[in-house]
Amino acid sequence: MxxxxxxxxxxxxxxxxxxxxxxxxxAAGAKKSPSRRVVLGGALGLLLSAGGATAWxxxxxxxxxxxxxxxxxxxxxAVTSESSTTASAAATSASDAASVVSDNGFTSANATxxxxxxxxGSGDSTLNYFTAKIDLTDATALKSAFAQNSFGENIxxxxxxxxxxxxxxxxxxxxxxxxxxxxxxxxxxxxYRDAGARDGLAFYRDGTVKVYDETATDAxxxxxxxxxxxxxxxxSLIENGAVKAGIDSIEVDTNFGNxxxxxxxxxxxxxxxxxxxxxxxxxxxxxTGYSAGVTIPDLAQIMLDQGATTAYNIDGGGSSTxxxxxxxxxxxxxxxxxxxxxxxxxxxx
Length: 349
Hints:
Elements: H1 36-45, H2 52-61, E1 65-68, H3 71-78, H4 82-95, E2 100-102, E3 105-107, E4 111-120, E5 127-136, E6 142-146, E7 151-153, H5 159-165, E8 168-173, E9 183-187, E10 190-195, E11 199-204, E12 209-213, H6 219-224, E13 227-231, E14 236-239, E15 242-243, E16 267-274, E17 277-283, H7 296-305, E18 310-314, E19 322-324, E20 327-328, E21 343-348
Antiparallel strand pairs: 1-7, 2-3, 3-4, 4-5, 5-17, 6-21, 8-19, 8-21, 9-10, 11-12, 11-13, 14-15, 14-18, 16-17, 16-18, 19-20
Helix pairs in contact: 1-2
């Protein structure tokens, strides 16, 4: 599935997408992409003499702020209810069963996965994106993991590195929660942050998925209602089986370092088809001749065409990544190199 033979595009242009989904361009021939922290740190560090505002920005957007150092232990200690314990035990038992892996998917006791590459257009308008349709037998089999097994701000690893640490068979990048200090963050049934600010996406233990207003509820209520994972990014793309009105002009989190998310960009989206039926889409972009990227309305149409009745945009740009069976599926920015993110969604082997 890896596109290592795809042509490499020209030097990346200055992005219009959110900084939370970006890093500076990689120099030609570089073997490793710089982390967001390194890139931003170098730029902001040169400006420290400019005053307190820049020092604040360096601390806020670059320096790691670790709140929980061992997420695995934290989640294990937080599972106290009988329903949570039962669900976790069921998922663990199912994951122990042997799975059957093919070139473009796998089947296990927990889930069935099918990955497909879609190519459209030609020349400068060529587009490549990847779909992953998942049928779950247990909604809690779709898990989340944090970079470096730690929770906090500005903590990053590549999707592949986080996935490998969890023995994942499949993963996509998450919402990059670590760029901001707002939003409701619930992962694997455990609440980590309760600072509602926008429309979020909630995955429930019963296999349903809903877009919700974070400011109208709180993390404790959501966990009590059976929420297993949340994502806090946006915008919502599909609601009640139709493209959401007005998404062609939406801006998300317009503040320091954030800009309009319109234009042709690499994208990642999550869609709900039916109970325990999901579709993930990763779109490559900013690589002339290989993949131009898509607009938010384009992404909504792709999700609609995939059968999603609810769909939600998450972190994109150079972080848009799909991982399967130890390798990259997509070709980020046409360079076949990953960039750091703060979290992933994954299926274990």
